[in-house]
Amino acid sequence: MAPNTCPTTDLDLNLILAAFATHKYHCLHHGRKDGAAGPKAIIKNVDMSDEMQQESVDIASAALEKYNIEKDIAAQIKKEFDRRHGPTWHVVVGKNFGSYVTHETKHFIYFYVGSLAILIWKS
After folding, report:
1. Which of 40, 56, 79, 99 has most Cβ atoms within 10 angstroms of its Cβ?
2. Strand order in the sheet with 89-94
């Protein structure tokens, strides 16, 4: 496999193109752990264990199933991370935003589920 590439099974072409728009981000994709159908997560940037990455995708997927409003999705993800891993977690959910954050080591993830970007970090 060529450098800066990743497998592309079952992914939307637009998401693939977005993931490869710049080579400075590495790309992973995760299916849902429960086997349910739905958009795959495309991880754009991460400083987090593989286990916590999967947990992030699972928590975000559950919030996306429960809520339609971005603020409510972000609130649900934050509350769940605070509950599971202690404070203080921060979450941004949206289709168009920039960010520059400082995070604790091994506590940062930025990924897409469908067209929504999700940024989660602990400080």
Report:
1. 56
2. 28-30, 41-47, 108-113, 116-122, 89-94
Which distant-in-sequence residues (6+ apart) come within 8 Å of 103 by Cβ? 47, 121, 122, 123
Which single residue is written with the structure tokens 């603020």? 71
Cα dist from 17 to 23, 36, 52, 114, whole Å: 11, 24, 26, 13
Question: In this structure, what token pair is assigned to residue 30?
Answer: 């995760």
| Length, in residues, of the chain | 123
CA atoms within 13 A on the CB side of 87: 1
The three-class DSSP label of residue 96 is coil
Domains annotated on the chain, with CATH: 49-99+117-123 (3.30.740.10)
Distance CA 5, CA 81 (A): 30
Is the pTM of the predicted complex or chain greater than 0.90?
no
pLDDT band at 37 (very low <50, low <70, confident <90, very high): low
